[in-house]
């Protein structure tokens, strides 16, 4: 692909031209039409039955590890763009049952509850209708034809309800690059060289290929747990460099997730105003499903102890009709 090596070199990034840098990568790595004009899955199409059989064969112990942060009022959200932490409200309680106010016969009592929350307030997938590029959505559709006040009419997250079950690969960049702390500093831009050197150092079970779901641990969540949330939601963070877009395209991975709020490095890599440029390349242009706010610490410990970094990953979104994202409880099975 012409110009690809230059697009992967962080030293060649023009930090005063975010529009140009985004455009060059969007055009170079665009997957529009690759799976037909009606496609609603993007790179999740790389997961086929054979891939899931391969992933299932990785289970040797039956050990299950949840990769989800809690969904409660103690989460990291601070209200930016109306993103709040979950509000959990009881509708019926044990007190109601004791006092006999529920109206059930023969002493029966029960409890019910309701939760109100943004769909991307804790561990979640970004759907393909979440980000647009110059008014265009995934697969070359007009953004306004895709997402309206009725929701995502074309690529709603419900289409992916059974898709994200595949071989998971953990790349523990925190421990690879900062072995003393296991935590990358805020603002560290993970490069293609970093991803490849981490996979090589971890061994053969970290080889990344078609249909894999890649999990990148930076260690930022571990730091937030220790020091407090601070600006974890939307502030400075380690994350992927814009220059990794070619690697994300070339490897033909199905999805990627991190233990950070925004997947890519923050502040973004420009000296002029910019916001989430890698999102702008990979979601509407590449069709890549992106996960954020995942808890990868227990998995990293398990992988390091065993010396293997591949596993069966089950990470199905809730089939919320027309949603542009979904809360999830991803489970790694070793």
From TrEMBL:
Q: Which Pfam families match?
A: Cyclase (PF04199)
* Protein's recorded name: Cyclase
Gene3D superfamilies in the cross-refs = Putative cyclase (3.50.30.50)
Biological processes annotated in GO: L-tryptophan catabolic process to kynurenine
- Gene Ontology molecular function terms on file: arylformamidase activity
């Amino acid at each position: 692909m012409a110009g690809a090596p230059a697009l992967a070199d962080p030293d060649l990034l023009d930090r005063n031209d975010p529009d140009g840098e985004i455009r060059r990568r969007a055009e170079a790595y665009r997957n529009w039409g690759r799976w037909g004009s009606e496609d609603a899955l993007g790179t999740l199409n790389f997961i086929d039955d054979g891939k899931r059989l391969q992933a299932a064969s990785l289970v040797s112990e039956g050990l299950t590890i949840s990769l989800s942060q809690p969904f409660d009022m103690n989460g990291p959200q601070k209200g930016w763009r109306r993103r709040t932490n979950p509000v959990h409200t009881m509708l019926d309680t044990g007190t109601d049952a004791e006092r006999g106010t529920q109206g059930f016969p023969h002493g029966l009592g029960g409890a019910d509850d309701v939760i109100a929350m943004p769909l991307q307030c804790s561990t979640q997938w970004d759907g393909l209708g979440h980000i647009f590029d110059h008014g265009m959505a995934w697969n070359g559709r007009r953004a306004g034809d895709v997402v309206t006040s009725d929701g995502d009419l074309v690529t709603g997250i419900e289409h992916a309800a059974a898709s994200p079950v595949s071989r998971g690969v953990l790349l523990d960049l925190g421990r690879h690059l900062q072995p003393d702390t296991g935590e990358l500093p805020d603002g560290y831009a993970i490069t293609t060289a970093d991803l490849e050197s981490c996979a090589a150092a971890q061994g053969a079970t970290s080889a990344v290929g078609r249909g894999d779901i890649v999990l990148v641990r930076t260690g930022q969540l571990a730091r937030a747990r220790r020091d407090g949330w601070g600006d974890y939601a939307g502030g400075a963070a380690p994350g992927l460099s814009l220059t990794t877009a070619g690697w994300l395209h070339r490897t033909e991975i199905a999805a990627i997730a991190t233990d950070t709020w925004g997947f890519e490095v923050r502040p973004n890599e420009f000296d002029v105003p910019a916001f989430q440029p890698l999102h702008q390349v990979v979601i509407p242009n590449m069709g890549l499903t992106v996960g954020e706010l995942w808890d990868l610490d227990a998995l990293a410990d398990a992988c390091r102890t065993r010396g293997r970094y591949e596993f069966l990953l089950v990470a199905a979104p809730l089939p919320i009709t027309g949603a542009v994202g979904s809360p999830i409880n991803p489970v790694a099975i070793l």
